[in-house]
Protein 1
Amino acid sequence: MTSKTKQIKKIPISVFFNKDQIPNKYKTIKFKEYSSYSVYKSDDKVLVNLSKISNLNVLQKNYQLLLIGMAIKNYCKSGNFYVDYFGNTKSSIKNFLLGWSLSNYTFDKFKSKKKDKNNAKIFHEFGEEIKSVSESYFFTRDLINTPANILGPVEIFQSASKFLKKFSVVHCISGKKLEKNFPLISAVGQAADDSKQPIFCEFKLKKKTSKKKVFLIGKGVSFDTGGLNIKTGTGMSLMKKDMGGAANCIGLAKLVSDFDLDVDLRLVLCLVENSISKRSIRPSDIIKSRQGSYVEIGDTDAEGRLILADAISYACENKPDLIIDMATLTGASRVAMGIEIPSFFCNNDDLSMKLIDLSQKIGDPLWQLPLWENYSDQLNSSHADFKNIGNSMFGGAITAALFLQKFVKNIPWIHVDLMAWARANKFSSYEGGEAMGIRALLELIKKL
């Protein structure tokens, strides 16, 4: 006698984008109403009505699909599911599936009492892709959420080394060698104690390739007090996330390796803690950069652009085809864009148009701000080549990008200014570190 394998009962999920798509037999069903969607669940089916978001543009529709996927997973709570109907070919079902997967994330290693896990599962054909993206998101979130008493520059480097299995370490520079070769990085981090000393490190994708060379550069300030221009208590409360650019770059590098792209990828991390001590840099100090230009410190809390400047100079020396830097750089960008939409700057119009298009199609928001050259005189210094901060309260994200552009030498360059943090909203109770823009940037790298 042979035994039959027990079949898993899977409940279909039908996703409708307008009321006309809903079959007549379901017209009398009473849906549970939420602000952006309606849902009905029984033992044998789940119906999701997204007519409330049907008039949104492609970017917002795809972005909300990810959030709705998270919400539906939490609504279903348990069981096995699959998407039986998806009523909009211009929107990506992958966003719904990724949102479902991301709802599994928890950061409770420092909680004595753990939350009960949601055991609902969804079956689909994109398993490996969703798993890969989720792993990068989870790593990025974990790194950002870990507090600075546990995660300093050395620990960020060690975490990246462990996570990036297909990469080798090319450089890990600290101490006197860092001071000589990366003076701005050294200066920003020199006030920290011995266990938090600054590091410049570079990883290289092991795969041999003759294709395009891409540099990813991540701002990794493990904690930012503001230096002698000290932040307020409120301003400092989230500063463990000031290494969010580095975390996102590590997550993006892992995705590039997972998708086996034919690209010579280098990951550069500038890892410091911006502390206060007798060794702190001061406002009005003048420091010679790796590039050779002299920078006057207008504000010690504008430290991220200083460490990125030396890293960008290093990348340019290697003559890559593209440089991408990611940084939690300015509050001005958050004032303009809010916390969910990273701004980006680009010195190549064709490249920026490609990224905008991919951002919309993927549903991973990135919004272009201008490298407005007429603001560059705000960086003028009476005693050095330029200052690290503008002399106006306006356009802070732009003047920060213009500062970085001074170190870019005729190479296509994208600068991403992101929050790297999510707050609880109507779709999810999660608050913490966040991956932002890396799916759109992955698609751009695919098309180089």
Note: Confidence is low (pLDDT under 50) at residues 1-5.
Protein 2
Amino acid sequence: MNKSESKYFNTALLMDDALIALLAVKDLEYITVKEICEKAGVNRSTFYLHYETVADLAEEAMETVNERFLSYFSQSSAAFVDKISEKGLNDLVLITQDYLRPYLQFICDNKNLYRAVFRNPHGMQVQTRYRHLKKHILAPILERFEVPETFHKYYRYILQSNYEFFIIFLLNFKI
């Protein structure tokens, strides 16, 4: 990576962080390019060099968050999704230190992000991300455990409720 690519990447990260900070206090549709630029310390022309709209920035910011999240896991954990059909049933139980500890550490290290998620789930594209999780991780695991599809919604509800409890607990607990 050359110097200009690094500067381009760092500027994009500044704008990602600015948007996430603004989403913690405002809905996405009320956030302006001007506010993002002021918070990130960049010019409007720089914003438009990177993005066409605030929605484009939101999409990229969430992709960056996903990359950060996966970086908390070991390489074998990050590649977990690709190997669900090959794993033994015991390996599909995700309430282990290998999966839970990095997940909880990510939440602790990114409290502002999660506050923004709870404040503004639409702007943070929570439903899109959760649909991806259901399709690519939860449904295949439930199928491997031979859980009838009519019960999948109950398992998803329980799992989502427990994760939300952990997140709320960690956001309010001084760690």
Note: The chain has two domains: 1-53, 72-175.
Protein 3
Amino acid sequence: MKGYLAFAAKRFVQLAAVVFAGVSAAFFITHLSPINPVEMALNRITARSQFSPDAIDAMRAALTDLYGVNEPLMQKYVNFWRRLVQGDLGPSLIAFPTPSMQIVMRALPWTVGLLTFAIVVTWLVGNILGGLAGYYQKNRALKAFGIVAMGIQPIPYYIVAFLLLVLFGFVWPILPISGGFSMTVRPGWNWPFIISVITHAILPATALVLVGFGAWFLGMRALVSNIVTEDYVTYAELAGVDRNRIVGSYVIRNAIVPQVTALAMALGGIFSGTVITEQVFNYPGLGSLLIEAVNGGDYSLVLAVSTMAIVAVATAIFIVDLLHPILDPRIRTE
């Protein structure tokens, strides 16, 4: 137990270092932008109504102090971490004066729900079917799955998303192709809203599942195809051990550990695929929010989304990493 706690502590230190480096990089990259947040905010405010020159000057002075435009870069960096610890990254430019983190927290549940569903379905179903395909290599249905997986896996997320959008939005218009829910329902814990959310999530979730399924299926099939030739599997078959037990306890269990490692490595790519997919379907998650912030020059919001994404992905990898010694006792934790 002490060895595992030491292992977890080391991984937590690595998590903190990754988050610190990633968030710091995001800060310096966003602050290389030539966009002046004060002038951007003033342009948006004055475009809605008329203000006197004195009022504009007063707002310019207040916004300059608010954004710390005239401060040295390192002072901005220190202030950024101070505000980040308090959960405050300043107001958004495109939705001034709404705090950036408040906007991010509104979009976060949509991305988390979509991403969680896609990862669970693709990883579990892909590995289970891939494991069966690797063991029962003559099964025709599993061979057909393999052909489909090889055909879909190389296709980028956005291509599959566009194909689904055209197919079910125009050729056979039976599913909504934009937004997170219908504007005719009231948000809340009621059945019309829940059903609307589910139907609007079908196409973006399907795009992520179709592409992700192929990679896990093919990877697991290749791993199991090598494991079935091992002596302990052959001996178990000759000893008359039940086939289901061989597949579950001897084959898939030993092949799943590399797939857990692959999951940790693939989380960043899966998130980037979610960003693109959300943009295609105008889904109200972090992906759409990030693109909107970039197009609007809102570096406060870009930094808030980037920070949340870095922390979330790094934490997910940390959790997956902690599962390794539990799944495979051969992994040393000391």
Note: The CA atoms of residues 176 and 200 lie 6 Å apart.
